[in-house]
Every structure is written in C-alpha cells, then in structure tokens.
Amino acid sequence: MNYNSVSELRAFLEKQGLGMRKKYGQNFLINPAVRWALIDALEAEPDAEIWEIGPGLGAMTGQLLEKGFPVRAFEIDPGFARVLRELFGSRPNFTLIEGDVMKTWPSQPAAQYLLGNLPYNIAAALIADMVEKKRLFRRMVLTVQREVAFRMAARPGSADYSSFSVLCSSAYKVIPLMIIRGASFYPRPNVDSQGLKLELRKDIPGACPAIFYPLVRSLFASRRKMIKNNLRNFIFSVIIKKGRAAPNIGQTAEDIAGEALARSRLKGDERAENLGLEAFVSLAEAVEDLSSGRFE
Ligand code: SAM
User: Fold this and answer.
1) How many domains does the chain have?
2) Ligand 1 center to residue 22 CA distance, Å?
3) Span from the CA of 100 to the centroid of ligand 1 (angstroms)
C-alpha cells in the first residue's frame, strides 16, 4: 500500500469499507521522511521490542518490521486491526493488542522503546498513567499536538508549566524534535504537531509516587496561590483525616505543613508555577517522613 498518497489511502479505505473516525484522533502521517526520522530518533538496538501506540493502517509498523524490530502494536479500531492482521499477522515479530490502550497496556510485558503518533484525545492521559504507574521506557518518540508538547517540555516560570510538566520531568528529559505541519497528515488537522523524544532520566527521584503525584497536582490546583495553603489542605486530607500524623510532631495540618516547608527550605509564600522538580520531591519526602503508616 502507498501510505504517502491521499488518493490511494482513500481508495484503500473505501475498498475495505472503512472510514476515518474523529473520536479516535485518526490522522495518518503521510510524509515518509517524517516517519523515518521518528523511527531513527528511537535509536533502538536491533532486536529490541518496540511498542507502537495507534498503528492505524500500519505505515510505521511496516517500516519498523522492515528494520527487523519486533513490534507490539496497540490499536482500538476493529477495522484497522483487521487490516493490520491481514498485512502483518503472519510475521512472528508482530503482536497486535486490540482494544483501548489505556486498558490493555498494564497487562503487557515491559519494553524499552515506545513509538506513537498519538491520538490527541489520549496522549497526555496515557503518558501520565504510564509515568505514575512506573512503566518507564528507555526512550519514547512521540508525535503530539504542539500545545501538548509545550506543556510537556515547559520549565518553571513559563505559562505552559503545569503539574503535567513536573510529571514528565520526574521521569524523562523531554527533547523537542521537528515541528510537523498539518500538511503531513491525512486528514489534515487544524493545528501543527511536534515530534518529541523522551529520554529516561538516570537520576529518577525516589519520592513515593502515591504522595508525589497527588501532591504536585494539589499544589498546582490554584497555581497562583502560595503553596502553604494548598500544602496544608493536602496534608489535612492525606495525613490528618487518615490518622497518619507521626506522634512526635504537632497534630494540626498547619504544624505538619510548616515542618515540611522548613525541611524543604521553603518559606511557603512561593507559587507552584515557579518551583522546580527538586522542591516538589523534597516536599513529598518530608510529607512521607512526617507521616506514620504506608501510602499505597
Ligand atoms: N500511526 C498511524 C500513522 O501515523 O499514520 C496512525 C496515527 S493516528 C494519529 C492514531 C491512531 O491511534 C489511530 O489508528 C487510532 O485508531 C488509534 N487509537 C485512538 N485511540 C486509541 C486507543 N485508546 N487505544 C489504541 N489505539 C487508539
């Protein structure tokens, strides 16, 4: 199949009785140079399995198999899944996981590399879910809407900096690749996309995920407010309400928040939008130390 020709793709879809579904964020990457550049950016060693999220009709899947990589492909559209089985089903290196990747990925064996021209509606949720559940890849190469890419790569103090930026930076170094214009896709989307490389950090913070991620989200809940109020509310719900206050520290949420801030060398009048990863990690570790019992 010629994956680079809109007319041939249309004819193929019609012959197969298939349509493009907006609800699944279906936009095929019809620019072969961009597809190869994304695959090359994975820098995967031969024989390493690649997870491909949303293979569509298999444009990149075919290129990956051609290069000799085993591929585990996650596709929700039953019509596309049928085509993928017909095209690649007989290859021992090809595994198709049909269904919603948000539900199917947790039961699959871990891999080192992930490639995905991600459907816009699940991109952020999928990345966040995998990071929070510590399913980490050595390298991920993704295509996302530019606005999502800005949020992922944002640094403290910038307008795009959010709890999602902190989450991404807690596990990965986010490296922007090329901008991918709408004309590289069929159907053509209204917004540009961005290729991104996510390299696993060598120094992943050891903070307890069950405290760290909820804490970051709650400190960003009102991003322009001083962190001391959000921190106190967080401590009230995760420590005081659950009876986890350590006996040697004052018993109020205010006391514990004050102690956690002091241990993190923060005053409390800072705003989440200006704090770097280290400050969030330090606060999460202090909150854990100041509690009794386990967080799951
Ligand atoms: N990889 C193809 C390409 O680059 O031409 C298609 C990319 S298209 C942007 C997104 C793909 O993800 C579609 O094939 C779509 O059906 C699939 N998809 C959307 N939501 C999904 C989900 N929740 N789980 C698995 N696949 C999904």
Assistant:
1) 2
2) 10
3) 10
